[in-house]
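Handout, page 2. Input:
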Amino acid sequence: MTDIAIRAQALGKRYRIGVSRRGYLTLRDALSEGIAATLHTARALVRARPRAARTDNTIWALKDVTFEVARGEVVGIIGRNGSGKSTLLKVLSRITRPTTGSAEITGRVGSLLEVGTGFHPELTGRDNIYLNGAVLGMKRAEIARKFDEIVAFAEVDKFIDTPVKHYSSGMYLRLAFAVAAHLDTEILFVDEVLAVGDEAFQKKCLGKMGDVARAGRTVLFVSHNLQAVSALTRQALVLDGGQLIHAGETSAALERYRALWTVRGASEYTNPGSANGITRAKVIPSGPGQVHRAGEPLVFEFDLRLSHKLTSASFSFQVNDEEMRPIMHLWIEDAKQPWSKTGGARLRCHVPKSRLYMGRYSLTTYLSDRTTFELYEKLDGICAFEVVMDGTERGYEWKSGACTFLEDAEWSVY
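Output:
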């Protein structure tokens, strides 16, 4: 038996865009449209006018993707939204045909690409377990041997004989994953569907996937959770714009993926015309572009231009999450470390060990009077940057929006 479980050769998938779906045409409609098209072509030839160039209304979701996965290997697939990750799994799962190229799969395949993939809403949970197993080529005795384990993992024992159309999305998800992970398939495809589960369930699923990997089954795992990809896989594929741009060790793949987020100038704000306020703000992260690794030093720089000396001046900034909720707040007061002289200064804030959780952040800045609370200038949503973790653990559990915390920081004035 070959040692290659999956071999993809020049895979491509093209979709038409901007064309509305229509119902079935009647014979009369089809004939009339055909005659109209013929007459249109004839008129164009008679008038000797070239026909307008056809608008390219297609898009390549995948293009010339070639790779191999060895038997028993766990491979991560990462990339930005719209890069072709889910399309690749659908092609490999035989859900959709490739436009070009081919894929050879050696072994029985189980897949979890959407919540309740392959479930029939009118059937009970019990019936769907057996139905899914049969579709995967399992014998009834094999499914029965795993049945109790599947139900226990999914935690739906009280509802196992209830039609799944009455299940919540969480129950649907738990049962769908349990079936895919516990039945004896040789190859398992898992999409980002795990992201919709609660935290406890995600940990449970990742633990099960670790067991699956150690059992020697071949796994393709699509996820935006770089921590999970790093923990579960040794090899990874990076897709961008439907093309495979990197295939190799996971650590190198993660670096290549981070480079995709590099947006020139994204972590810097400039306003040279400001007469009294911030003319420049910049985040200096530890990685390339605007990417920062959690736990490493993080630097913030601010250039101020002041038309006159401020009294009781205070400068502060917040780090906000993607929903503009303040996560971290740091400040410097002129009374303790003079900086608000006429003409301005450069302020540098050095955080020796940033504890920001993985995600995307921006800054809100405040230039104010700490005595009168007069606000001279406020800037929102500047200096976007991203934090990645790669297995780095925080010193405490963080929940989005739960708190605002203060980091240890060192301020310098230039």
